[in-house]
């Protein structure tokens, strides 16, 4: 595992964007796994800048890690809309090349099984990850088995309260989501985890230096042979 501690959040995002740019412009695989969330907003902005300097996403197929259950497809918090708004519409990434679970699927279990097959068939080349303050990756909350695949999950109170900042007043964070499992994520050829801010320090320290345990879902990335963790100094402050 490579750990990069950048000078500040902007440099962390810049270094993460370098890794994504290298993948998009040189890798044979064009299947890129995307996370969402505050950390990704900076990374997406960096990728939009790279596009303005010539980086093309035309050949890329992008796959979402997770999606809320039950939101309207046009809800601004639907992750497909978020990625469209912050990345796809500013670069040459077609909407048809953006893949994810359908938040309005009537049979969510069947939708998860369909998406698991789609992701496995795509063979993700580079999977970008954030980390939750409770150590989650995607929406795999503490206690998730490492052999988990795409499925419906109940969101923890911690995650719902962390994500409430994205929802307008009077709109609550859904109680359920569909998420790639840990086994699904580990099947990608390469992982890139990005974390900035002191709020992530404890989760990062437990994931990177604590025991590999399902109590800290992000610790599973240490079972992968090609992982880069990019941090800013506050996110790295708990590391030995
Ligand atoms: C969402 C996802 C989550 C986030 C994590 C960090 O697609 O995968 O695991 O990466 O919750 O979110 P932020 O960056 O908002 O702190």
- How many discrete structural domains? 1
The parts where pLDDT drops under 50 for at least 5 residues are: none
Helix content class: 25-40%
Estimate the mean pLDDT confidence. Answer: 96
CATH topology: Rossmann fold
Q: What's the main sheet like?
A: 7 strands, parallel
Q: What structural category characterises the helix and strand content?
A: alpha/beta
Backbone shape: globular
What oligomeric state is this?
single chain
Task: Tell me what you see in this structure.
With 240 residues, this protein is α/β, with parallel strands linked by helices. It has a single domain (2-236), classed as Rossmann fold (3-Layer(aba) Sandwich), CATH 3.40.50.1360. It contains eight helices and ten strands. The strands form two sheets. A seven-stranded parallel sheet has the order 1-10-9-6-2-3-5. Helix 1 packs across helix 2 (38-52). The longest helix is centred in the first third of the chain and has 18 residues, at 9-26. Residues 35-39, 65-66, 130-132, 136-138 line the site of fructose -6-phosphate.
